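Work Package 3 (structural annotation) set out to generate three-dimensional models for the target panel prioritized at the project kickoff. During this period the team completed the workflow that converts sequence records into discrete structure tokens, so that structures can be stored uniformly alongside our sequence database. As a representative example, we reproduce one entry of 165 residues exactly as it appears in the project archive.
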Amino acid sequence: MKTKISIIIITVLPFISACNQRNIQITERIEIENLINAYSHCADNRETQKQSELFTEDALVKVFNEKSNKPAQTLRGRKALEEAFHVLLQYDATTHFNGQSIIKINGNTATGEVYCLAHHIKKSDNSLLIMSIRYHDTYTKQNGKWLFSERDLYIDWTDKREISN
């Protein structure tokens, strides 16, 4: 009887190890998705300091307009990012809808592509600006927490409309 029990345990151990590894990958992906959503939440609530704290100290952010392969803006570090996030103050309201994402995790680093439709309302001219954005991200896990270390923001298209009050 001891032999059968030993064989079962030896057979099950690799399966348990694989399940544990898969659970870790799922947990890591959820943590990165939470980071992505926290970025949008902070932007929409004008929490510029909290938003900048989602990045590593020396993070690099580049903004690309439409089909240009040269960045229109390059920012490095939390302080520069926090100042740049104030640009949203010109709008009365914003809503960022995050869509599909592809995330590839490799230990304490990961890469991803995230789609977003960003809506910006300006009551002064009754306008709604919609931006189709793709983010190409590099994530780094520091002190047990996922952060953006690089974020390339690609504005694929914009649509500005007049809205009624």
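The chain has three helices and six strands.
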